[in-house]
Amino acid sequence: MSPRLVPASADAAGRRPDVPLRITVDGVPYNGAAGQTIAGVLLAAGRRSWRNGPSGAPRGVFCGIGACFDCLVTVNGDRDVRACRRRAADGDAVTTQSRAADSADPAGTDGGER
Amino acid sequence: MTRHVVVVGAGPAGLGAAAAALRAGARVTLVDSAEHPGGQYHRMLPDAYRAARPGRLHHGWDAFDRLRRRVTGHPRCAWWPETSVWMLERSAPGEPRPPRVHVLRGPADGSGRERRVLEPEALVLAPGAHDRALPFPGWDLPGVFTAGAAQALAKGERVVVGDRVVVGGAGPFLLPVAASLLEAGASVAEVLEAGTAAAVARGWGRRPWELASQAGKAGELAGYAALLARHRVPYRTGRAVIEARGDGRVEEAVTARLRADWSVVPGTERTVTADAVCVTHGFSPQLELPVAAGCALRAGATPEEPFVEVDADQLTTAPGVYAAGEVTGIAGAPAARAEGLLAGWLAGGGAPSAPELRRLRARRDQGRAFAARLAAAHPVGAAWPGWLRPGTVVCRCEETDYAALCRAADDAAGGAAARAVKLGTRAGLGPCQARICGPTVAELLRRRAAGAPGRPAEGLAPATPHHRPVAQPIRLGELAEPPRESE
């Protein structure tokens, strides 16, 4: 049971076949379709969370329209990008962020998202 | 010289405003953070999907498609997609001009976006709203989404958030969200309206003539109801999701029957297997830009849920600043469009006596009546905090829990409670800048103060969670670059 992309062949909106793209998240490759947001690529790959709150609690998409900032990621070195609003581009190197004190995220514990 | 109107937001209200201002002869700059016009209501698919039949996912697509082509292709319209308004700079006191509009153009939250400053003769603010989601135990688990997120993902990029979904909260928006999920192939376990059947029927049943003007809306809702019935999805009133459970993600939802005040009827709890829970308990208008422009707010259903105050011409209390759409009241797309058309025409210098305005004003007034009616039919019940446990996270960003908030509220002197609680618990100080928890924290503090003996509620500082002088994040590098010349 997981989130997914409606297959183009079965899409009532008459989508043409997907144009594939590939991004990496912490070095791990994820396949997506051109037009998806970074959040969309991750969700459709079955990944529901990619950020950690101060206690380490997992976070992913909540509001989906750029208001809650739960889904922040680092994209090609730019911190604090809302994954629900940023279109994935082929080759994007995404790294996850954490605000937990024991995290390996160098900017996560202090100032990174303030 | 041609009058320059800046319209912020290209949803139903903003697009209507741009069209009417163009018709009035003005030059228009229409800005929106998305790549396409439409807002959340007509959220378009990305170009890369090359969809042959995008209208299948929308109501009123053909009219919208004509309108957006006419506006964005108009020789006097500058259409600026992927543009964030990060600051409104008010003019000097005594200078009756709208604020200067500072924007960033480029991919969402990117670095090196282009800074521009606009100096309009009139400004129309139509930024819209986002879901208001009340906290409950487990609402911070991955797999709990706002209803708006589920719809945006389904309509905007054809991603469905789960296989078996529970949709819950309050208001008619539950229906299109469930419909979007069904259309995209999810199974919807149930749709739960927290309002009791009697309250909903009372709200919708009386003064039916007010619904006549919203005939399109009523037909749309009837269509959703039929779709739910076809898929055998139960729609239950007086019931809510009061907990989400799972190991690192949602695996089940706990629902319970509610009384009219949204207190839980003990013994009615049921556990439902689900891999996604979608909630909406109303809408929060995006007020940071109106507040930055100096617009007065008017009280909504509660002190924590205000709207922008506008007059009969959609003019706010700030000179040259008009507001339209959900920031003035929640009434749906047709009402937002009517407000936008009126605001745009007048902002563009159109004659206030133009004959077609009479019809428009009437539609707008009907929209306002509809908004009042919706608010009355789907109020947030006062006893919802009974769902909370001491450890329930209230501020998602800072993970401030209910017990910490109560402790801080009780420790603080009445008048300074809001500020002291914020500084003491960090609630509302995280990345979202209180967009999600602001109204909730303010409401919890108000209830706490009112319930505490010897602590007068009137001593409480007015809740102002909408003050965000930097309206959208800007990077230091971008700030360091001088903006391109104003226009």
TrEMBL record, chain A:
Keywords for this protein: Oxidoreductase
Domain of life, source organism: Bacteria
Segments of this protein annotated with the region Disordered: 87-114
Pfam families in the record: Fer2_4
Keyword rRNA-binding: no
Gene3D superfamilies xref list: 2Fe-2S iron-sulphur cluster binding domain, sarcosine oxidase, alpha subunit, N-terminal domain
Coiled coil region boundaries: none
Protein name: (2Fe-2S)-binding protein
